[in-house]
Amino acid sequence: MSGQSRTLVPLGRAVGVKLFSDGLLVVNLSESVTEDGTASPARQCGIRTGDVLLELNDEDLKSTEQLQTALQKNGAQSVSLTVKRGARTLSLEATPESGADGVYRLGAWVRDSMAGIGTMTYYDPQTGTFGALGHGITDVDTAQLMPISSGALMYADVASVKKGHSGTPGELTGDFKPSQELGELTCNASSGIFGTLSDISMASGEALEVARRDEVKCGNAVILSNIRGDKVEEFSIKITKIMENEGGGRDMLIRVTDQRLLSSTGGIVQGMSGSPILQNGKLVGAVTHVLVSDPTKGYAILMEHMLEAEP
Predict the structure, then answer these.
(1) What's the pLDDT tens digit per position in 31-40?
(2) What does pTM read for this prediction?
(3) Which of 131, 160, 200, 206 has the most CB atoms in a 10 Å sphere around its CB?
């Protein structure tokens, strides 16, 4: 979707994010110790790291606990598996193995959910939708985009900041309030996460026009970010380079110039992804990555590119 005629409320508020995967993501393969030695039924049947287990014996897989329960109930009988690998869907068969503890296993470590802290980028008062992060949520082990079944935003206060240094990224630490959800997460895309905001109390600011790419210039700009408590503050930056066809959330190179932010965080830290960037009264993009070698610098995505990923 083009952002050329959109007006959006820039936010910059830190939130907790929880995501439940669509199927079980295989993050590693392992060997089980059996009476006959070691075995990995998952590896033997062709399962690979990065695959997504969708079904076992035609039953949808939604949690690791469900998989473990089904394997114990099944015992040593062969199981049929529906597996997603990229755009392909595969049908595989495996025979679980039990170790000395009598527990039947596939020999696959799987993940069904994840949670963390990030920054909301914008709210659309016309549709009630939001965008955040400026990049997708990826699995820490496989770097694969997590397939989403459901998810939510939670209230969070920034409790502390680990300051970034050259070679060591800093991070925001937040106190989540799991019982207080503020929106539904419906899309996890490479250019951000998106959904519907149910509590708009934090989205009462002025709506700004989204800048076109040709309106974004190298030079002074500001970011809105939440580095303490629930307070959103404005910090000065410079857009130092606008990339040509870089993609991957790396449309612009930015540098933090605000001494308050530099003294508090060292620059850009994990958890600030999604902080909106404003220039000349328009919403131009969002912070996405920090340069590990120099935390005063980082990358940002153009807002019109982020909006193209909206569902």
Answers:
(1) 776 666 677 8
(2) 0.88
(3) 131
